[in-house]
Amino acid sequence: MNYKWSRYLRLILLILAMATGVGAAFGYPMEGLLAGLLLYLAWTLAQARKLYQWLSHPGAGQEAPASIGLWGDIFDGLHKLHQGHLATQDRLLAQFNRLQESTNAMRDGVVMTDARGVLVWWNGSASYLLGLQRQTDRGQPIQNLLRAPAFKAYFDGRDYREPLELNSPARPHLHLQIQISLFGEDDRLIVVKDVTRLFQLEQMRRDFVSNVSHEMRTPLTVISGYLETMVDYSDELPARWKRAIETMAQQSTRMEALITDLLLLSKLETGEQHGADVTVDISALCEQICQDARALSGESGGHQFHLDIGDRHHLRGDEDQLRSAFSNLIFNAVKYTPTGGSIFITWFTNSEGGHLSVKDTGIGIDPVHIPRLTERFYRADPSRHKETGGTGLGLAIVKHVLLNHDGELEILSKIGDGSEFICHFPRSRLDEPEPERQTASLAPGSAPEARNEM
């Protein structure tokens, strides 16, 4: 490059020297030099005009202007850059068209918005599922088109760990699942899935369980009644029938408990069981449940109950649901804790909310089972379940009660080291003034020492 520039500079100086020499031959060296400079300037302006005209209309097939010297190399270099730019543009356009074709072939809707929610692009499935119109909706905020309050809160909340489910604004018979991802400078990529079939199957499952449970309840009640009568008069029956009748009565009782739990779980899922939120005294509620747990344990169980309730023990919620959830946890601790074991029930509050911990010294649970413990009928140990007579629905009921109260369940356990179940409730559920700043915070799972022993 430096060599070419030196050559161009020497050529210009040579031309000016020749112009000066021609002028000197006629006795006007300076005039000759000036004439040479003016001619070179005129030629340079002519080349600049060619460049301007070419850059103003750079057609894809248009050749670069013809020239020599420095301007010729400039034209050739710009022409190569222009051709490279066109090739890159064609390649990117082909990739973009391919991307559009692939996304338009998707059954899921894909929508791109900026940080403020202004629509930038969407595929054909999004047009169908959300009713978006390319002619009128581009550049519009998506909140103006999806007016559901739940979607606006989900979009503005920036917590996209869980998807949002709602009905389609354009086709109400469709049930949609919306998942948002952040990219770039807070831009949003929105994926919309049609989950109508899954929603209908789930609804059918709930209806089936509810209807079957209702239909079975009446005949089972009649059977249980006759079996109880036969048990009462078992001494008058032949000896070989006594054990059979007692076993039938026990299994009938288990089936009644199962149907009761199924009906309760069905009501919790559909919201039928959710009553008005009232102020619940956690202290009184836990004391009542502990009395029932002592009766369940009996004299042979010999369990030690330790109840520790903090000073702030009022929670807003459905008292019947909370009683059901806490009873399941405490009764499970009784069932799965060997004779003479200890059960700790602790309620405490901190800056995050209220927490109920139920900890036992039982046989514990293998951590591999913990993620699935709240599933219906899931059993970490079927043989242990058979001995204790549970329904396999207790923790599923606890999970749905906590969901109805904006809470979550935490499970900590190891084989041979007992188990701890912690119900976390948000601060908005506490019916107490916010506690003063404490010097030491209580971490979930580390309950304070018990101060009341029952």
From TrEMBL:
Region Disordered, residue ranges: 429-454
Ranges for domain Histidine kinase: 211-429
Pfam families referenced in this protein's UniProt entry, alphabetically: HATPase_c, HisKA, PAS, PhoR
Alphabetized UniProt keyword annotations: ATP-binding, Cell membrane, Kinase, Membrane, Nucleotide-binding, Phosphate transport, Phosphoprotein, Transferase, Transmembrane, Transmembrane helix, Transport, Two-component regulatory system
Listed Gene3D superfamilies: 1.10.287.130, Histidine kinase-like ATPase, C-terminal domain, PAS domain
Catalytic activity line of the entry: ATP + protein L-histidine = ADP + protein N-phospho-L-histidine
Leading EC class: transferase
Coiled-coil residue windows: none
InterPro entries named among the record's database cross-references: BphY/WalK/GraS-like, HATPase_C_sf, HATPase_dom, His_kinase_dom, HisK_dim/P_dom, HisK_dim/P_sf, PAS, PAS-like_dom_sf
Residue stretches making up the PAS domain: 95-135
Organism superkingdom: Bacteria
Main localization (coarse): membrane
Catalytic activity, EC: 2.7.13.3
Extent of the signal sequence: none
CDD domains (alphabetical): HisKA, PAS
Subcellular location: Cell membrane
Role description: Member of the two-component regulatory system PhoR/PhoB involved in the phosphate regulon genes expression. PhoR may function as a membrane-associated protein kinase that phosphorylates PhoB in response to environmental signals.
PANTHER family assigned to the protein according to its UniProt record, in alphabetical order: PHOSPHATE REGULON SENSOR PROTEIN PHOR (PTHR45453:SF1)
Protein name according to UniProt: Phosphate regulon sensor protein PhoR
Organism: Marinobacter zhanjiangensis
Chain's gene name: phoR
